[in-house]
Amino acid sequence: MLSYRHGFHAGNFADVFKHVLLTQLVGALRRKDKPFCLLDTHAGAGRYDLESAVARKNREHAAGIGRLWHRPGLGPELAEYLAEVRALNLDGALRWYPGSPRIARALLRPGDRLILTELHPAEYPPLKAEFAGDRQVAVHRMDGYVGLKAFLPPPERRGLVLIDPAFERQDEFERLIEAIRVIHRRWAGGMIAIWYPILDRAPSLRFQRMLRESDIPAILCAELGLYPYDAPLGMHGCGMIVVNPPWRLDETLNRLLPELLEALRVGEHGQTRLEWLATAP
Fold first, then answer.
1. 164 is a catalytic site residue
2. Which of 112, 143, 164, 250 is catalytic?
3. Are 36 and 158 contacting, i.e. CB atoms less than 8 angstroms apart?
4. Which of 20, 100, 183, 219 would disulfide-bridge 278, Cβ 3.0–4.6 Å?
5. Which of 29, 33, 18 is nearest to 191 (CA)?
6. pTM above 0.90, yes or no
7. Which residues constitute the domain of residue 71?
8. Residue 205 lies inside a defined structural domain of this protein
């Protein structure tokens, strides 16, 4: 299909949610001295110009990163994430938004690695150019699901797989279940983070039931909903599944998600959810 272009949605509330959590996951990997590898399977363009024609069409970032840009009193997790966005906007004006590859790269230490796969013919060239000459980043034009078998397990034996597909296919959740099984078979100790939209509520709940019924331990589900789930068609919220989450991530998210909801909510609507779908034996 390959019709999805993230530039229309860059910096929206779903990006904020996803990248705040990504910052926490990479931060947890940094707490140990040993190097790690991060594989981003649907990397996108790397960074996005919020003044471009596509970003200005719907200005989705205004209800996402725009709500945090001048917000005082942010907690440490939101402040840490916002610092990565500000690093691309040193003049203080919000123009550039970092995709997950740019955020991940900013958090790498010497010795850590980032592997990026992107199949879209319009997204791959800017992604390749973004990291040209960077020896810690490998960029491949490849289907992200194929990359799971090509690059896992990494020699570092520590790290994270971020899977953030466009959800253009009806069977995307089923593909994600199979992807989790593939990763777990090849790299049982690897951390997996899967972002998903909440449009029609039923598919994401079915996805979670399938995860509960799997034999994979240690699965944490975090969700942010800004609109009633029975509202007309649209993205009402989003979630992230984390397999093998770092120690005490649930405690961090229990504090962070309500703060994020308060910063991004529209009117009185909104809800968060944090639940273990499976716990470690």
1. yes
2. 164
3. yes
4. 219
5. 29
6. yes
7. 6-278
8. yes
